[in-house]
Amino acid sequence: MWRELVESVCSDCRFTTPAAESAVAEVQAALGAPAPSELQALWLEANGIQDRYGDGIWSVDRVIRDNLVVRQGQIDGWL
Predict the structure, then answer these.
(1) Which domains, and CATH codes, for the chain?
(2) Per residue in 43-54, pLDDT tens?
(3) Which has the closest alpha carbon to 51: 19, 6, 2, 20?
(4) Which residues are CB-contacts of 75 (< 8 A; sequence separation ≥ 6)?
């Protein structure tokens, strides 16, 4: 479903390998809240989508990593 929708608006997007259900479950374990169900469904089709500008949709790992960095206040030098 998500792949078809994205391809209809972004012909040059690249899809990464789908995430495992256990990886998607790690978001809730690491951050204390589940990702929206639509985002979880997308990750199960593609664990991130890249467009000509970089990461259009972040992978499970990046969502966890970057959220933990922000929550810990370690923003200096982050970007």
Answers:
(1) 2-71 (3.40.1580.10)
(2) 999 999 998 887
(3) 6
(4) 69
